[in-house]
Design brief:
Length: 77
C-alpha cells in the first residue's frame, strides 16, 4: 500500500500522495497514540511519508536499507 511507483514524472502528485497516506495513518493510529513524541518509518525511501509525519511528531526516525535513498531523504528534508 505504501510503496508508490505509479506517478512517472508527476512529482507534485507523488508528494501529495504521501500527504494523504500520512493523514490516513494518523487518522487510524490516533486512538492508540497517547502523545506525538517519536515516530519510526521503516523503508522510508526518499521521505514521501516521513516528511509529512514530521509535522505531527516531535521526531521522526527514518530507516531504509538503501544509503542512496537516505541521502535523497536528507536532501528532501
Amino acid at each position: 500500500m505504501y510503496i508508490s511507483t505509479g506517478f512517472g514524472k508527476d512529482e507534485k502528485a507523488f508528494w501529495k500522495s504521501g500527504e494523504k497516506t500520512a493523514q490516513l495513518i494518523l487518522d487510524r493510529a490516533r486512538p492508540f497514540i497517547s502523545h506525538f513524541g517519536r515516530a519510526l518509518d521503516f523503508g522510508a525511501g526518499i521521505g514521501r511519508i516521513a516528511i509529512p509525519m514530521s509535522r505531527a511528531f516531535k521526531e521522526v526516525r527514518a530507516i531504509d536499507i538503501s544509503s542512496r535513498m537516505l541521502e535523497l531523504l536528507k536532501t528532501n528534508c
